[in-house]
Design goal:
It is elongated, with a radius of gyration of 14 Å. It is mainly α. It is built from four helices and no strands. It is about 80% helix and about 0% strand.
C-alpha cells in the first residue's frame, strides 16, 4: 500500500479531479465538486513542485476544508 502512495504523481491527482467533477454531473449536491477541486489544487501544485505523499494528503485535506467552508458560505448566501 505504501508503494502505491510513494508513486502518486500530478496526473493521478488530475485524473481523480476529472473523475470527481464528472461525478458532479450526477447531481451530488456539490460535494464531489469540492473533492475534485481539492484534488485539482494538489495536482496543479505538484506540476510546479514535487511534493512527498504525506504532504500531498495534508494539502488535500486543507484544500478540502477551505473549499467546503466556501461552499457552505455560498449556500448560505443563496438561501437568503
Amino acid at each position: 500500500m505504501q508503494d502505491l502512495l510513494y508513486h502518486v504523481n500530478q496526473w493521478h491527482w488530475l485524473a481523480f479531479s476529472l473523475f470527481m467533477l464528472l461525478m458532479e454531473l450526477c447531481r451530488l449536491k456539490g460535494w464531489s465538486f469540492v473533492v475534485g477541486g481539492s484534488a485539482f489544487i494538489v495536482g496543479l501544485l505538484m506540476h510546479f513542485e514535487p511534493i512527498t505523499w504525506p504532504f500531498q494528503w495534508a494539502l488535500m485535506l486543507i484544500a478540502l476544508l477551505i473549499l467546503a467552508f466556501i461552499r457552505a458560505i455560498v449556500l448560505q448566501i443563496k438561501s437568503q
